[in-house]
Design goal:
single chain, about 45% helix, alpha+beta, globular, eight-stranded antiparallel sheet
Length: about 700
């Protein structure tokens, strides 16, 4: 390991980032990035962005919910994030009578802010490089099993030690560079978060699926929440007595806007990238994983969309589910397109050939770099069949046939629970789940999913032969009708009655439980089949990444995204999507009016009040120097999912927008950064404030912000 320690030491001392690619770790900004950032126009010091000893910009950036970013914008815990990040909570709080999805919601005082059950925000209080603590006693010749055992023990021991040093905090130790580097994060979580305001979907989701991942964009993708704390300003469970969190650090807001070429940076929590993925993995993605995901989700979404259009109740119930599914569905379409169009697989093969040649000439066999790519190739080939089947089970059954969810909650692994230890907790959880469940819709989905699974899966769960074929003559539709007609889990009332008079025997005899058991048994068997190949893959990937860094010691390397706090920086720029076409770097409210489409009211409806404000030119202080109201803008920063809601900051660290999307032409960016094409799409803070102030009449919120 000594050679790698020296390599990472060099990384923190002498590398200078050479491009806009990179999701950079904050502790190394001073040594790796700040020089180039200042050359690009940044006016801040590294210490002002990230500091161990005093408040800095990073203290205003939070994990919002389970997979987004948010930012604190006032000393009273006011928080901005994307509309699509708050969408799940907005949906949970909506009803036919209070349709916040369709109509929006605005509190006119703190007393009117609505608690959002289950929603939390997390502040990162400390970050430290703990690589020596985790890898220091791992032998250089350790195989993957020994490596994982020792590092696992070290991570567990160090986690407990850091927890003792930071009472009341969460501690996470995360792996970087495929297990070649480790950082520890000390986290403070606040669970009392309340909805303050959200625009109607005609603003917050303007453009819908059609505009998703596309430019030009005109979506007002933002929502407003507030963090609450106990009397000591520490995390506390919801209570009417809680008070707004007193923020030591919050972001100032700039109305100055931007010009082409201006410096911009984004801080947030990018979720996942695979920039070190090999050609073998990308080929499998193109041939199997993406086509299956696109097909399965497309089938289900068509059914959901039809039912949602017929009923306001179903629309509200399934709005968040549909949005989650369709986002990655379209992402997969664009990803495959981008990988093919930009020749990513061919570029990966060239990189791999150069690496193999280097390893054979410059490393010893016992270092195992020469074996890295062969191990990855063997692993990918070995995992291909079980992973394809696992994906089908996950997408077409576990994530699609909803009746399986409550049925599985009565199982421990594959065995029926002998008792329900906390009946009231189970009752509350199930009631919350059934609030957003429509059995007729699920029945339609189940019929389609079971049919396409039989048509496309090579290895089927046992219920097909043991039940569908034996008892229903192979008729999956008839089986699904029997399932929904006879399972207690198709009805909230029957499930609650089951809790009142619990019977393990009744649960075991339920057809939904039989289906769940069969699916999970097959899923478990597939997991076991892939295990030896997965271990080979992890070993190969660890050695490949370490070898690449040894092969190119002067390159500035950034780890793949793993939902940890990162910073990316670049410039506000247009781009050329094709020959003879140039996309401007910002859009305006004029484009919203031009896109209105009465033939597609779900995606392109414009609220009447917004039309009135536009017709009157009543943009107030939110107009740019041309008198336009900017809506969205572009920057060549490096983001991915998880960055949604991230603050876009100018050279002075002031908020100018909220990142919410990438562009269609560079959808392969998660596996290969495309410097000439890749752009971050953000909603302009001036549009956000205009909607809050002029459209919603909630200007009281702006009074607690610092706006320059």
């Amino acid at each position: 390991m000594k050679k790698l320690f020296l390599l990472f030491a060099a990384a923190s001392i002498c590398w200078t980032a050479a491009a806009d690619e990179g999701m950079w770790m904050l502790p190394y900004l001073q040594k790796m990035n700040i020089k180039q950032m200042k050359e690009r126009g940044c006016k801040l010091s590294a210490e002002e962005i990230y500091s161990l000893n005093r408040s800095s910009l990073k203290d205003a950036v939070v994990i919002f919910g389970g997979g987004c970013t948010g930012e604190i914008v006032s000393p009273e815990g006011l928080l901005l994030t994307n509309h699509h990040c708050g969408y799940g909570s907005i949906q949970e709080l909506s009803s036919v009578e209070h349709d916040y999805l369709k109509n929006g919601f605005w509190a006119m005082s703190q007393a009117e802010e609505i608690p959002a059950p289950g929603l939390s925000v997390r502040f990162i209080r400390k970050i430290s490089d703990v690589t020596p603590d985790i890898l220091g006693n791992v032998p250089a010749t350790a195989g993957q099993e020994e490596y994982e055992r020792i590092t696992g023990e070290n991570r567990k021991a160090l986690t407990e030690k850091i927890k003792e040093e930071n009472p009341g905090m969460l501690v996470e130790i995360e792996s970087f560079f495929e297990g070649n580097q480790f950082f520890a994060f000390v986290i403070e979580r606040f669970d009392d978060v309340r909805l303050v305001g959200t625009p109607p979907s005609s603003i917050g989701k303007f453009g819908g699926d059609t505009d998703n991942w596309m430019w030009p964009r005109h979506t007002g993708d933002f929502s407003v929440f507030r963090v609450y704390a106990g009397p000591d300003n520490k995390p506390a469970a919801y209570s009417p007595e809680n008070r707004p969190y007193r923020a030591d650090k919050f972001l100032k807001v700039s109305l100055d806007g931007y010009r082409e070429g201006d410096f911009a940076m984004i801080m947030g929590f990018p979720g996942s990238t695979s920039r070190f993925a090999t050609s073998y993995e990308l080929q499998n993605m193109l041939d199997v994983a993406n086509p299956q995901r696109i097909s399965i989700r497309g089938e289900r979404q068509a059914i959901l969309k039809e039912d949602m259009q017929r009923s306001d109740k179903v629309r509200i119930q399934y709005a968040s589910k549909y949005a989650r599914s369709s986002n990655y569905w379209k992402n997969s379409i664009g990803m495959s397109r981008g990988i093919r169009k930009l020749g990513v697989v061919e570029r990966k093969k060239e990189q791999e050939a150069a690496f193999q040649s280097w390893a054979e000439r410059n490393t010893l066999p016992e270092e195992e770099y020469v074996d890295a790519l062969p191990l990855i190739r063997e692993a990918v080939e070995g995992m291909a069949a079980p992973d394809a089947a696992r994906q089908y089970l996950s997408e077409a059954f576990l994530a699609a046939v909803e009746i399986l969810s409550p049925a599985r909650s009565f199982l421990t692994k594959s065995e029926v629970k002998t008792e329900i230890k906390d009946v009231e907790k189970a009752r509350k959880s199930l009631a919350e789940w059934y609030k957003d469940y429509n059995a007729p819709t699920d029945r339609k989905v189940a019929k389609r999913m079971l049919r396409i699974a039989r048509e496309n899966m090579r290895e089927l769960p046992s219920f097909y032969t043991e039940i569908v074929d034996r008892e229903f003559g192979g008729d999956t539709d008839a089986y699904v009708d029997y399932l929904f007609d006879n399972s207690v889990f198709a009805s909230e009332e029957q499930v609650m009655a089951l809790l009142d008079d619990y019977s393990p025997e009744k649960v075991a005899a339920d057809p939904a439980v039989a289906l769940a058991r069969s699916v999970m048994e097959k899923y478990t068997a597939l997991n076991e089949a892939r295990k030896p190949f997965a271990e080979k893959y992890r070993q190969g990937a660890r050695k490949y990444v370490a070898g690449l860094m040894l092969q190119q010691p002067d390159k500035a390397w950034a780890s793949d995204a793993n939902f940890t706090l990162r910073l990316t920086y670049g410039r506000v720029l247009p781009y050329d999507p094709a020959d003879g076409i140039r996309y401007n770097y910002y859009t305006t409210l004029k484009g919203v009016m031009e896109k209105e489409d009465p033939q597609n009211p779900t995606e392109f409806t414009v609220p009447e009040k917004l039309k009135e404000l536009y017709a009157a030119g009543d943009f107030g202080r939110y107009a740019n120097e041309r008198g336009e109201l900017p809506t969205c803008f572009l920057a060549d920063c490096d983001i991915t999912g998880g960055n949604s809601g991230s603050p876009v900051l100018n050279a002075r660290g002031e908020l100018i927008g909220l990142a919410f999307d990438g562009n269609w032409e560079a959808m392969s960016g998660d596996v290969a950064f495309e410097a000439q094409l890749q752009r971050t799409i953000s909603v302009d803070i001036r549009y956000v404030l205009f909607i809050i102030d002029k459209f919603a009449g909630a200007g009281w919120l702006l009074e607690e912000m610092q706006i320059d």
